[in-house]
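Moderator note: this is an archived Q&A kept for reference. The question asked for a predicted structure of one protein chain; the sequence and the answer are reproduced below.
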Amino acid sequence: MIVGIGIAYFLCCAAIGWWATKRTRTAEDFFVAGRSVGLLPFAIAAMATTLSGFTFIGGPGLIYTVGFTALFISLPAGFTNTMGALVLGKRMRLLGEVRRLVTVPDAIGARYRSPAAQGISAIAILVGLLGYLATNILALGIVVDSIFHVGLGPGIWIGTAVLLAYSAGGGILAGIWTDVFQGALMALTSTLVFLAALDAGGGLAAITLALQSADPSLVEPWGARGAMVALSYFFVFGVGSFGQPHVAHKYYMIKDIRRLRWYPLLMSITMALALMLFFSVGFSVRAMVAAGDLPALARPDDATPTFLLTQVPIVLAALVFSGVAAAIMSTVSSFLSVGAAAVTHDIPRAFGRAAEADSRTLRRGRTWTVVLCVLGAALAHNSGTLVAFLGIFGYGLFAATVLPSLAVGLNWEGATREGAIASICTGVVITLGLETLAWLKLVTLPVGVTVSGLTLVTSLLVFVGVSFATRRNAEGQLDADVRRVMRI
């Protein structure tokens, strides 16, 4: 049953990809879906892109490991949707219309009248993108292995092949409509799993008592990692959400900007439904392990597959496996479009290359989609790292490099290109440097201090400080049409 439904799901994604490929004729179709997406599919697609393998595989695994600390990753979701629409949505869509922009680095380059800022931000996005791709492809490999029992390595490459079946041909148009299909499935299955997790654990009271007996710190207000880590997660995943390029990029696509006011409500409802699986499975599985009803997990990332294979009806398990795969694949397809655009569009612009013929850009976009997907799969195959921690690395790097220059820059006329470039470079260097030193065990941060939180704060301070130091340049770096968009 699980194998059959899993195959049917993959075939549906491939069919959507074939349909979208037939309708993808220009680079604008490939990268921004022709700016023709309605509000409801836009909101569902944004939810599906935001929630990924990090949420449905890494999230329960992190809950299983650190308890309430991990909840601070999802708690900001309620206000970030509203703030994202207010801070970025209208400005990104109007700027895209005025300048015919197709990428997030496009917007950064236009804001500061700087090809250099555009190119550097594209490189930063590529660095974070490979980590986030690896996160989601690793999670997809775990799902495929759980369904087909082929091993994690083959599971990674089978999942990669399915991803390429629709992403390489249809680009973001295929991604949007697979997101709509996948997002609806995610919301439904997550709600059903939440109810099943409560039942399997004997209710909230029984789950809480079992967790207290196993490790009381799991259910303390800040969880096992303490207040500083919990607040760092809240800060990075709350404020940092404005710097996620795969989400900001989607604002270019909405057809009618006047309907954007309904986006926060729709997005919040769909995310609340989908996030039920995030915490319920992690707590329930840890409680059942503590009570002796399940053996200890070989790895925390097995929490969701183990629960589905042992605690829910077979049909629901099959649908949820498909829903988890849906979350992963929707995010990866968006990242592939963002990455392909960075390589084929943004970096050449930074070196002064003129725009190429539309057909050639489309062909190169499809080629780089394949290359980036394979690189992400190779990194996932050899990483040996928990899905959640790879995801935190990618999310934190995006936040530190994109948030100041884009989200703050589009709302502050005093920002300068020098501040933007300095903050982007700071985010990349500190994130990669500290993560590498920590991995080599050459540096240990103080208890409660996370690399992502430290880097984001530093990058914001550098952006503001350098912009103030070079503020006499701000007026000459802001074109009249961009200023009008910022003041709307």
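Archived answer notes: Residues 2-391 form a domain with the Sodium/glucose cotransporter fold (CATH 1.20.1730.10).
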